[in-house]
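Changelog-adjacent note: as of this version, every example in the card shows the full chain rather than a window. The one below runs 547 residues end to end.
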Amino acid sequence: MSFFPKKIVGVDIHDYSAELVELKIKGEKVILEAYNRVTFDSDMIRNGEILKPEEMKVVLKSLFETAKPRLIQNDNVALIFPSAKIFSHIFKLPGNLNAAEIRKTLPYESESVIPFSIDDVYWDFSVLYKETEADHKEYQYVLFASIKKDVVDKYAKLFQDIGITPSLFGADVESLKYGVLKQLDLAETSLVIDVGTLSTNFLVLKGHLIRYFFGSNKGGKELIKSLMTILGQDEVAVLAQKESGEFNGKALPKITSFIESNFKLANRLIVDFNLRKKAEDKISKIFITGEFLNLPGFYDLAKKHFKNYKIVLADPRAYLVVDEAKFQGTSAGKVPYSTYFLNAVGIALRGVLPDSKGGINLLPNNLKESIAHKKNYLWVAVASVLISVISLFVATFIFFKYQELNYGRLNLEIQKSSVDKLLYGTRYQQIRDEINHFNNEVNELSNIDNTLFSVSQVLREIKSSLPYGVTLSGIKFDDSRLIIGVTGVASDRAALLKATKNLKELDYVDEVISPISSFDEKVDISFFIELKLVFKNLPKYGSSAAA
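Full-length structure tokens:
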């Protein structure tokens, strides 16, 4: 438990607008300290990519400086990327894989779900949950998220150019979860429908656990483009109608069609999900939210399409503590369309709540290292103060003990002098010769013994390290390089990963080299593993397992 309230800034940037909130966490309370929302020209950010960085720098600086009820100077910032730029997937993996093994496995598994090389993206993962399924095997479900490096680097530079180093670059799947976290019932399974600018996202939660996520490309921007053609107006004029919530009558049929197409997709997802679940795990509640929630007829159409479900507005105002007196005198006493801020609030909570550790963070490595250095510097400063206090105490103690220690030193010097006289006495030469002769014999025996090790013991230990499902077909020893080559066949990847892990844990194995090609196949995998040995740790000649 922290003695001091934690503060964090959440930022949501996408085409057309950006939202910002500053939150303070005090116990169980989530307090709104400041907020802001700005709109900007559509040619500054298009499809989530920054096209005019200098103009966006001015917008971002204004977002912080004109916040209500005061400017924001907090450098603990969490950013949610535009949803269309993030590639997310939930993988089903064997339950016995640890974090390091999952990190090695995901680059191969992700090749089927992302349209880029793994080297061209920043990626991260989070273990969602584990469960034992019908085949009595335990599996773990792992959330994987990635984004192109050039997109991230542009956003990172944008913030750094105004003097801010963000601590978190998050994914929409987690910002949605934490945005509705305080409204969730642990006993219910809920579907969150987020109608955003670039996509419409569908998130299924069982209590607080993410069970399913899908992003559709039918976002609000697609609707805006269609309305420009129908109304014969430019993008600015159509967006002005969207912001006011008052559309030309000609636009209403297209708006209704847009909303219904997303709700029909949601119904198909619900049916498909519920068919595979027990009664207690089926979806029973619908949360609706997003940038385009203020479209005419949105809530009425939701009631029509989801008659058998509880419909709830996913609104951060439902749980934020807002000091009305603090916001009096601003342009608005209350936050208008507070659902606009759901992702900004969600990513802020993702960055500060204790139970969010281990989630997705797409921050570049250099920024992660910079943040780690800052934290280390703070701890060093605290430690320095403690060390100074302790040093004063120790110095005082040493001062009073000095005479006693000095007396002990003099006494030891006298004893040393007596020993020296004995060693340099008449028997010195005889004792020295006998010691030298003995040392020579010991060295000769050690040289012989140290060059031998038990080959049979090494082979037995290597063979016993191979788990069930791995068949050993050959072992080759390279004496000059001190390397053992192991060949064989593994029944599946999990068995091969287990074998690699067991071999790595042998005391005399310094490094296990397993070519990436060994993981190309999923079953009946022929493999070749090289073990680099540490000679001094090898079992000595004549040793045995019992020894």
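Structural remarks: The mean pLDDT is 85.
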